[in-house]
Automatic annotation (TrEMBL):
Pfam families: KduI. GO terms for molecular function: 5-deoxy-D-glucuronate isomerase activity. It comes from Sinorhizobium chiapasense. This is 5-deoxy-glucuronate isomerase. The keyword Translocase does not apply. The lineage of its organism: Bacteria, Pseudomonadati, Pseudomonadota, Alphaproteobacteria, Hyphomicrobiales. Its EC number is 5.3.1.30. Keywords: Isomerase.
Length: 266
């Protein structure tokens, strides 16, 4: 199995835990907690900043004793936009599930001067991107132009069955602004219906990295460098939650030259 594909390590509780150390990189961390009503999870941000994303379900969430109340409304990631909470560097957070809960913990190096806040559905509108079988639906949870974080970029995408996404192929693995930014990235995948699968390829121009993976419900893929398109097979919609971070909070990508013709009319 590819080292870029991380399977869930449990059926409940802490199902995924990606750290910079386990991924072999510098910036991005990701965890996924699955809780039953009444169960809790908590943590210290330390030197990191966090984005808690309610992938599905509801929870009471507090940061440094500030009670944000019960948050969440969608019961699957395929219906509506998410609630999320930004947790700044040096803060402690806690979440108590009030319904079956999938809570993602996205992390990257933090900075000074940022405050905890709730990011509600509709803060950033869902966008339809692409045409034809390259159509997908994108919700920026923490985009680069919101000025609300030091490092974190967080976005979720729904790709209908039979469609492609993160496509035409693009990459962001060079610290060469304004042409391209260096960003590590994780993909947390969900499938609808859940027994389905999708395909993701991660590859570089020289093919020194070239991995094609069948991703299933709950899998995480790592993108340390290279292009990283996703294909949703017929009959199964794909949701993924992306976490990106690098030395600068800028998303500037480079398109694969041999596929740039696909942008005509997109």
């Amino acid at each position: 199995m590819s080292k870029l594909l991380v399977k869930p390590k449990a059926q409940s509780g802490l199902m995924q835990e990606i750290t910079p150390e386990s991924a072999g990189w510098t910036y991005v961390g990701f965890a996924l907690n699955r809780l039953k009503p009444g169960e809790t999870t908590a943590g210290d941000a330390g030197e990191k900043e966090l984005c808690l994303v309610l992938v599905s379900g509801k929870a009471k969430i507090s940061v440094d004793g500030e009670d944000f109340g019960e948050l969440g409304e969608r019961m699957t990631p395929f219906e509506g936009q998410p609630y999320a909470v930004y947790v700044p560097k040096g803060s402690r957070w806690q979440a108590e599930a009030t319904a079956d809960l999938d809570l993602a913990v996205c992390s990257a190096p933090g900075g000074e001067g940022f405050k905890a806040k709730v990011i509600r559905p509709g803060t950033h509108p869902q966008m339809k991107r692409g045409k034809g079988t390259n159509t997908r639906y994108v919700t920026n949870i923490m985009p680069e132009d919101d000025g609300s974080a030091q490092s974190l970029l967080v976005v979720e995408v729904i790709t209908p069955g039979g469609h492609t996404s993160s496509y035409p192929p693009h990459k962001h693995d060079q610290d060469d602004l304004p042409a391209e930014s260096y960003l590590e990235e994780t993909y947390y995948h969900r499938l609808n219906p859940p027994q389905g699968f999708a395909m993701q390829r991660v590859y570089t121009d020289d093919r020194s990295l070239d991995e094609t993976m069948a991703v299933e419900d709950g899998d995480v893929t790592l993108v340390p460098k290279g292009y990283h398109p996703v294909a949703a097979v017929h009959g199964y919609d794909v949701y993924y939650l992306n976490v990106m971070a690098g030395p600068k909070r800028i998303w500037k990508f480079h398109n694969a030259k041999e596929h740039e013709w696909l942008f005509t009319g997109i």
